[in-house]
Amino acid sequence: MIQNLHTHTTFCDGKNTPEEMVQAAISLGMDSLGFSGHAPMEPPGNWTMTDVAAYRREVLRLREKYAGRLEIFLGLEQDIDSPPQPDPWDYVIGSVHQVWKDGQALPVDDSQEVFLHNVETFYGGDCYAFAGDYYRRVGEVAERTGCQIVGHFDLMTKFNEGDRLFDIAHPRYMAAALEALDRLASQGVILEINTGAISRGYRTAPYPAPPLLRAMGERNIPICITSDCHSAQDLLCAFPQAAELARCCGYREQMQLTAEGFHPVELV
Ligand SMILES: [Zn+2]
Ligand SMILES: [Zn+2]
Fold it and tell me: How far is the CA of 169 from the centre of ligand 1 (A)?
């Protein structure tokens, strides 16, 4: 069964309409597809949805239209700073895209230049102090969003291919990340292996990094593979690579969503 639960469309910052995504999923032989539009957040971003009601209507229309050909799930990527969305969702991905420092929202994944500028300006150039604030929020994301899946756990490494900005083996970095993992492990949430930064050319490997993936396995944290795609052509980007990474880090199963909820299936 091929599934991807982390996808974006023209309702937020994706390139393709939901229907184009559905048609691509069918032609790729996928069994199911979940939409996870970016929920509105504070401060407003130009990458979040402006009409959540229309998004819901369109996904529910497609679910009916393509019934029997593709199972479609209505999800939401809820930022830790998104106001609560009262409507029912099939699932929620909880993500941290910004940290707050001195009353300002600092984006985590905007660009390398913005990241370095903010670390320099607000943290005196200390990436590990930024990591402390980032992972404190990630540790809270399940409690704050009520999510079933935590998005891109180590997003702050988006521009750090080859450890060019900071060392992920640094004790302060690992301590911050492991504290977040411990807190999430107690929440019973799924963490994703997310290939989104590969399709966008920022990285050659998925999130999270292998040491964190092994630490997740030791804590019995379940996983699911997603591509966080912003276009139909990336629906299954690097899925075999992600599955191989999971196996190398000790995983044998991933979680899949069905009409009855999440259940484990063998990694293939
Ligand atoms: Zn995200
Ligand atoms: Zn996303």
Answer: 24
